[in-house]
Amino acid sequence: MSGIFSISRFRMATDGPGISTLIGFSGCPLNCQYCPNPICHTDRSQWPDYSARELIDFVRRDELYMRMTGGGIVFGGGEPLGQEYFVKECALYSQKTLPDIPLRIETSLQASIKNVQELLPYISLWIIDIKDLNPDVYYRYTHGQMDLMWNNLMYLVQHAPYGQDSIWVRVPRIPGYNTNRDIQKSVRRLQPYVKHIEVFSYRKPPEKREGTTE
Ligand code: SF4
């Protein structure tokens, strides 16, 4: 069962260059306090069950826009690395029907190294939200272990077939969780390994704003 909770078309330069289609996979091992897609945690059996062929055939309707703008297909979520075999099936079918359309992934890298290895040959851009590299901040915000993400990132740095340009790391400002100093420390730790580092800000969801507890 594929468990796709959304397909967002015509995304402009938000998931790598050009116009992209973002496929939202249900399921995520993290529990981020300001998760923009809490719906991904709901039971996957309620979502449409695409085969890889059905999904890529659907996405193909925007092939022209992708080709004209250098866009691509983006596997996101949720955590697409949790459905690595299905993503691989999509990649194999896409190679046949949409040759040279880039395949990208948006991930927290919270998965076994085997899942990362399974997809390594197919993904030309890894967009990684690392949260924060202070393990305490990471745990407080996500309830996950930072080491798993970091070890996977280091593996990617050494083995990604498309090289350093295929790894983009995002470092969020997380209101109430990390400080500017934490962010600077994360960036400094990443700099020897990653060329493309983007600092950006999370928004607190309305129910966590003023007057509520975190
Ligand atoms: S990693 Fe992404 S999808 Fe998963 S809980 Fe965090 S923000 Fe939500």
From TrEMBL:
Its cofactor is [4Fe-4S] cluster. InterPro entries: Aldolase_TIM (IPR013785), Organic_radical-activating (IPR034457), rSAM (IPR007197), rSAM_sf (IPR058240). Keywords: 4Fe-4S, Iron, Iron-sulfur, Metal-binding, S-adenosyl-L-methionine. Pfam families: Radical_SAM. The keyword Iron-sulfur applies. The keyword Manganese does not apply. Residues 14-214 form the Radical SAM core domain. PROSITE patterns: RADICAL_SAM. Signal peptide: none annotated. This is Radical SAM protein. It comes from Megasphaera intestinihominis.
